[in-house]
Fold Tetratricopeptide repeat protein.
Amino acid sequence: MPPVPKPPVANAGSLSGAYLAAKTAQAAGDLDTATDFYTQALSIDPTSETLQQDAMFAYLADGRFKDGVDLAAKLRDEASVAKVARITLGVDALRKGDFDAAIAEFDIVNPSDLDALLLAHLTAWSEVGAGRIDEALSRIDQTKGAPWYQIFNAYQKGLLADVSGRPEVARASLEGILKDQTLARTSPDAYLGAASALARLEAREGNKDAALKAVDAGLAIAPNYTPLSFLRDRIDRGETIEPAAASVQEGASETLYVLGQAINRGDGRDVALLYFQLARSLSPRNPALLIALAGIAEQADQLDLAISYYKEVPENSAYRRTADLQIGLDLWYADKKDEAKTHLRRAVRDYPNDKRAYTALADVLSADKNYAEAADALNKAIELAKADNSADWNLYYQRGIAYERQKMWDKAEPDFKKALELSPDQPQVLNYLGYSWVDMNRNLDQGLDMIKRAVELRPNDGYIIDSLGWAYYRLGRYEDAVEQLERAVLITPMDPTINDHLGDAYWHVGRRREARFQWERALVGKPEATEEQRKEIEAKLKNGLDDPSATTIRAEADSGESAPRTKADADKMPAGTPAGASETPEAETPAAEPDTAPQTTN
């Protein structure tokens, strides 16, 4: 699908204006606009080394590889950026098949641990390209360093040997990974990649049982990992299975991808983005790379860019469904709500047996307050789910919310209880069920205990702490309510419901002026108070509150009568798991070294 032409950026009019606009856009994560302004600035002053350096990183991070290479050639000997410039030039040489030139560029002195591993693997792939297989395998074996090197070395050796026509070496290396599940804690991507690579090797060798065993080893640590499930079905059907890496370029791309994924969090995300874009220059249609790039774009709130990456995922890829579903969610967050609903309704028709399609549709329908249709979608998702799978607690939780919002408590309560049966320590569920009971003056003691447990699990969640404060309020323990609600307001200062609750609690402990202040604050909160909330708050500002005693409140609770109180907005509860959420285990991976590459934002 060809890219949609973008409108040209404004002419900055001066070098300083263009440079400032580029840095501002870069800091906001809008690399597309940043690179356009850097181009303007370079057209005014093409000799500025500072400008060239900043532009090189922006071009590379934005995927404008040729522009990045052109600047890297000029900056190869500049000490502050030489490492990134030479890695870029080496990747370009490898891409073109000039393997000895690539090896020369990768010969960098005093690299960090992460750089040393990356350079050794890229050099080994270049050796394979030059026909020096033994030297390549020996280089991997001689790459020693941090304990976390082990799985990356074994995975790359397996891929190198496979591409080089040495299946026994590849098999031994990949099997060694799968025999030690603890290695998955360092890099789930390398572990799952090893399972896929070994399964593909065995399938091509005609060893179907061994191939399926390798797939199952990966699914044992990530049961919902779609690429392996997709591969398993293909092997079962007897299809021709492609190798994990079909060329030196694809293998080197996998090196950059898997190490990028290892650091793709927190401060390492900018470095990971550079790795991913370098990898993409070697393997432009790699679906895992496109998904990873889309995820980083989403983190930067560049939703149109994320959608464009998802649209590039090949139709025959195992990642195509994930991409389709995530497009629907991103359309919603990009405020293209009708388009999002249409897209996801089409997705459930295209993928009628995929529960993720129904949960993605339910997410946007719930956000649109179409709770009846959301419940219908979740009914289908639950039908497709495996019985009593603890990972499916969220389906019952979300359906419980949909029922509760329709005032169908007789259906909602069993779903919340089922969610807790499947996963007893889910703070969202403990909070929602406990809060609901307290707010309806039912099961106050049990509801209070649930909310306390939720606070223990999420001690910095203002909404859950608000629930605890409101439970104390319902019990007539106003001083305790004030203590908790003040904590909640400190953490989530603009929420109208929390400020309203604190105003009520202040009123009952005699702090009337502060109560009115909190109610007024609730009226200007974010998100805006609902019309019903607004009317109640305005009435309290005019007339204050009655002062029922704790005994009266407790009597109402014992009788099952509901106090005349508006239920807190369910929008404060966490949303369902997005379709594109990680399906792999959490990693214990190396941090990006500070000198690996400068960050792309300032």
The chain is about 65% helix and 0% strand. The mean pLDDT is 89.
